[in-house]
Write a structure and sequence with these properties.
With 300 residues, this protein is an alpha/beta fold. The protein contains 11 helices and 11 strands. It folds into 2 domains: 191 residues, Rossmann fold, CATH 3.40.50.360; 79 residues, Alpha-Beta Plaits, CATH 3.30.70.20. It is 34% helix and 19% strand. A hairpin with a 3-residue loop joins strand 8 and strand 9. Helix 1 crosses helix 5. The longest helix is centred in the middle third of the chain and has 18 residues.
Length: 300
Amino acid sequence: MEARERSLRASIILCSPHGNTLKVAEAARKRLCDLGVHSLMVNLAGRGWDALRHFDYSEVLPADLLIFAFPVYAWRIVKPMEIILTNLPKSSNGSAGMLVTYGGCTSGRALMQAEELLSDKGYATLGAAKIVASHSNILEDDSYPLIPDPDVYRNHPDGRDMEAVNILITGIIDKLKTTDPPRITPAQLRPQFGLVRLMLRSPVYKRYGPSFPPGVRLDTGRCIRCGRCVTACPVNVIEMDEYPRRIGECIKCHNCKRVCPAGAIVSTGLWRKIVFHFGLQKIHELPSVKGEKPMTQVFI
C-alpha cells in the first residue's frame, strides 16, 4: 500500500476521574511522540455538564487521528465521554482509536458502545484496548466492599499494561500510513461473557443499570469544610455553601469520598451496595469468569 508522506497529527481526548486513565493517555502520547506524530491531549476533568455539552471541538480538530481514553462505569462509557462522542461532528473519513480502563471483572459494553457512536459519526475505529486498572471504588472499607476480590485489580495499570498501550498506538499509526486502513469490527469488541451480554440486553439493566452503583452523601457532623471535595469533583458539581453541596448530576466516581480527610462523605444505599457487591461476586465465582482473560487486551 502507498505510504502517506506528510506528518500525522493526533488528538487525545480523555476523561479520568480516578487518575488511571490519565496514566494510560500519557503513555499513549509518549508513544505518539516517539513515532514522530504531533499530538495534543485535552483533559475533560473539571468541566461541568454545560461545558461538556458545548465542548469546542476546534480544540482537537482537525486531526488525522482522534484517541478517546475513558473509564468504564456500570459497564458503559462514563457519561462525560458519552456526551463528547454523541456530539462529535460528522466526518467523511475520520480515524479513531480507543483506550478504556476498567475494574470489577468486565469492561462490559463500553468499547462496543463507543465504536457504534464513532461509526455513526463517520469515524473508522482503527484500534482499541481495554486496560485493567484499580476500580474507582476499590478503597471501600465498610462491610460490603463494592468490588469482590479487589487484589486482582490493585496495582494496575502496570508495566505490562503500558506495553499494551505502546502496541496499540504503534499498530494504529502503522495503519494510518496506508491508503486503506482496516477498521475494527463491532464483533471484536463485544462483551466477553455470554452472561454479561445477556444482562446488558435486559430491560432491567437498560432502565436501571447506569444509575445503579451506590452514590455518596455528606455527614455534616464530621465535615470540616476544607473544600477538598469541591476541587476533586471531575464534573464540577460540588460547591461550598455552609457545607459542600451538590448542584448537578453525580457520576458516582467517589473521588470526593476518597479525598475527604474527615471521613464525612459516605456511600449511600446499603441495599444497592449489597446487591452490587454480591452480583459481581457471583459473576466472579462462575467457573469461566475470574475477570476477563486476558485482563488487558489490544484490538488492532
